[in-house]
């Protein structure tokens, strides 16, 4: 295993400092000079480490104000995952299909928990999105943005921000290669019916029915990818 560079070691120490001080997004960090004194290192290594941490949203540098803990967003992971799937798909490899299998396992595994007690206001949002799909279907195509909003809203009652970001990674990957897919393979009427059935199962608090509906929905996506 390659030995970590000085900058990589500083990255590790900055992360440990954030954990030890129980800092969160937006909290102030020591200045560049303070980090140099604290770790006994030079300015070049500190700047290299901070640049790397900024790239993955661990550190935010505000010119004229100082350094702060970053948003800790998973957007760099999302971009890497989407690009990896797109590259493999374009090379004829099953990168996107593999990604969709993981997404199916995730959604089918969670949709049962959603049926345990979805608030009425969240259920109303889902009904509204299905109604919007039905209007869009009359034009010949359900908008991807509406479909995406449905799947994100479906799990909002779980109040899991990590889940939302991971699901977004799957959508980003699909968007990268959507021109390679035959969007007309599954009719918009079928898409609406599948989402309507998911909502009906959730409204009835029927976990098994919801899982079956989600599996059926992914059967259609799988068929498109196989083509």
Automatic annotation (TrEMBL):
PROSITE patterns: HTH_GNTR (PS50949)
Domain of life: Bacteria
Record has rRNA-binding as a keyword: no
Gene3D superfamilies the UniProt entry points to: GntR ligand-binding domain-like (1.20.120.530), Winged helix-like DNA-binding domain superfamily/Winged helix DNA-binding domain (1.10.10.10)
Keywords: DNA-binding, Transcription, Transcription regulation
Matches recorded under CDD domains: WHTH_GntR (cd07377)
UniProt-listed InterPro entries: GntR_C, TF_FadR/GntR_C, Tscrpt_reg_HTH_GntR, WH-like_DNA-bd_sf, WH_DNA-bd_sf
Domain HTH gntR-type: 4-72
Name the record gives this protein: FadR/GntR family transcriptional regulator
